[in-house]
Amino acid sequence: GRILEKSDSEFLYYEGMEDETHRVKITMPDGSEWFDSKDLGYFDENGFVFVTGRSSRVLIRSDFKLSMDMIENKIKSNPAVKECAIITQNYVILNDEYKNIGIEKLIDEIQNSNAKLSDVEMPIAFNIVEELPYLSSGKIDYQKVLKLHK
Question: What is the DSSP letter of 138?
């Protein structure tokens, strides 16, 4: 689910971004204010929080809300896949030993694994690429991936 935060060190505002400040402050029915981290995640049985993705990376297809991060994780669990980035299409970098696998064989490999994609999770297209754009933080630059798509 969506991760909301509340602590003694209260978030006040984003400087010069009043609309965004209002979007991230959630008021509950009891009047308490919470900060919407825009992260998705879950608690394990020991109470630890695990972040599984960003709410901004949610795709709505056939009335289902799909986490693109979760779909990427399923695809990356396949030994053929080194890295992937999903926008609506999927861009994958293959591990060296799988460079000649081809898209159809890759999809078959994924669909015959423990991390099979459901019909609604399946990207509309797979694209094998040599590299993906990264931010200085080491994370995929999805804005630049969008430009690959155009």
Answer: S
Query: 23: part of which helix (H) or strand (E)?
Result: helix 18-24
pLDDT of 76: 92
Number of Cβ atoms within 10 Å of the Cβ of 40: 21
pTM score, two decimals? 0.67
The secondary structure of residue 55, as a DSSP letter, is: G
Cα 82 from Cα 72, distance rounded (Å): 11
Q: How many residues does the chain have?
A: 150
Residue corresponding to tokens 């064989």: 105
Cα gap 51→54, rounded to integer Å: 8
pLDDT exceeds 80 at position 10: no
The token duo for 87 is 């926008």
In DSSP terms, 83 is beta-bridged to 93
CA distance 115 to 20: 36
- CA angle 65-115-140, nearest 5°? 65
Structure tokens at 145: 């991936």
